[in-house]
Amino acid sequence: MRLCFAAVLLFASLTLGPAPRAAEQIVVTQYTIGANGMPYAIGMEKGFFQQEGAEIADVLSSAGGGTTVRIMLGGNLPYGEIDLAGTVAAIQQGADLKIVSDNVLTVAEFIWASKKGSAIRTVADLKGKKIGFTNPRSTSQALGVLLLETLGMQPGDAELTRVGGYGEQMVALGAGAIDVATLVDPVWSKNAAEIQPIVHAADVLPPLCDVIGVASGAAVAQKGGFIRAVLRGRRRAVDFMYAHPDEAAVIIAKAYKLDLPVAQAALTNLLTSHTKSGVRYWGPGNFDFDGMNRMIRAQTVVGAFSGEVDWAKIVDTSFLPDDLKPKQ
Q1: Where in the chain is the domain with CATH 3.40.190.10?
Q2: Digit-coded pLDDT (tens) for 303-318
Q3: What are 127-178's pLDDT values in tens digits?
Q4: Which CATH number fits domain 24-106+208-324: 3.40.1080.10, 3.40.50.720, 3.40.190.10, 3.40.50.300?
Q5: What is the pTM of this model?
Q6: DSSP letters of 73-121?
């Protein structure tokens, strides 16, 4: 009997093979809307995550900040890509999260633009004008303040005006409710015929950390292999985008429901945005703590964050490959 039972087990193992890995959901701020999430579209389409050992059932999208944190924790999701200030604030309020990678190292997706044909054409023309931003304590508001500061202006030298989403900014710009819109790619590439760029963020602002990779405390303790596989798969996707921009644009156009020329323009803008700073928009996961500190300062100015940050307590670099870990 024992021999027969052993034979049955052996036959089952040979015919059925090992049990498949359980598929996980992850959440990415503004996925299929904002440029930060484009590597995940590449990774899913090319099978990079699966090849690295991360079975991802779905990439959920979210508005960002606290909303993404709530989706991640409420759904017991192991990994998310979230804006820096929203994550740090959530951790300070008791959220069981760790920052595991630094994914987008600049704010090169942002531009400030006026309506086509407007007399507002240069940064010198911004004084006294209405500059739109999305919502209070948002990155777009923080960057508006930082832009004026960088140009040697005071916050009161221009009127920063809450408008809502980036689509709403295009409407407000067309209606004359604002003089200048704060836009991100691929939104501004999609509307290029209707606007004239005044200044690209990458040309005037230093590298600022945009979004980061975040893991739940439970995942850090129990799903380290999955986290490492996600980071490896995303890194491969980023490398693929820089090496094969034409194929990447086709994949992004499909995932983001964009016309191919729009996807190509947005990708070209971001892949070449490091010409001045030397820092690429999409990073492979390595940490730029200077850029993180700059973003925290900018968010503090608009009230999105307060207090001091001890990165050693909330950052876990152990999930990165050795070549991306901070040098001791």
Answers
A1: 24-106+208-324, 110-204
A2: 878 888 999 999 999 9
A3: 999 999 988 888 899 999 999 999 999 878 999 999 988 889 999 999 999 9
A4: 3.40.190.10
A5: 0.89
A6: HHTT-SEEEEEHHHHHHHHHTT--EEEEEEEE---TTEEEEEETT-S--
